[in-house]
Amino acid sequence: QVQVVESGGGLVQPGGSLRLSCAASGFTFSSFPMSWYRQAPGKERVLVAAISAVNGGTNYAASVKGRFTISRDNAKNTVYLQMNSLKFEDTAVYYCIRGYSGPYSDPWGQGTQVTVSA
Fold first, then answer.
1. I need a labelling partner for 59 at 20 to 30 A (CA). Which of 37, 52, 101, 117 fits?
2. 13 burial type by CB count under 10 A (0-12 exposed, 13-18 middle, 19+ buried)
3. In this predicted model, what pLDDT tens digit does every residue of 57-110 receive, in sequence order?
4. 83: phi > 0 → left, psi -120 to 50 → alpha, else beta; which?
5. How confident is the model over 48-63, as a mean pLDDT?
6. Interior CA angle at 62 toward 32 and 41, to 5°?
7. pLDDT reported for residue 55
8. Beta pairing, strands 3-7 & 18-25
């Protein structure tokens, strides 16, 4: 069955960096687009970044464009999210899932908490 495990979150000061990882299993990873979503307290889960399967094309939310970079390693069945110049408003639980413009109907992972605080 499809499974994803997110990791790499933590507490970071504003302006700092983190790299999130998502290890996927249960499907042919290289054949599917992958996305990162985040959910802040009291808010809906929203798309942060996505990467296609075919040509590595990417898509970013306006709020993170220029600061975050999504990438994938098909040999390791892993998708990454490099987050630079972090802001208070980036505080959220971050999730990965198959999909590009919207999530597949897969079970969500447990997510990884990112807290930006001074």
1. 117
2. exposed
3. 999 999 999 999 999 999 999 999 999 999 999 999 999 999 999 999 999 999
4. beta
5. 94
6. 85
7. 85
8. antiparallel
Quote the pLDDT of residue 77.
Answer: 97
Give the torsion through C-alpha atoms of 60, 21, 5, 107, to 10 deg. 10
User: 95 forms bridges with which residues in the sheet?
Assistant: 37
Burial (Cβ within 10 Å: 0-12, 13-18, ≥19) of residue 8: middle
- Model confidence over 8-39: pLDDT tens digits? 999 999 999 999 999 999 999 999 999 999 99
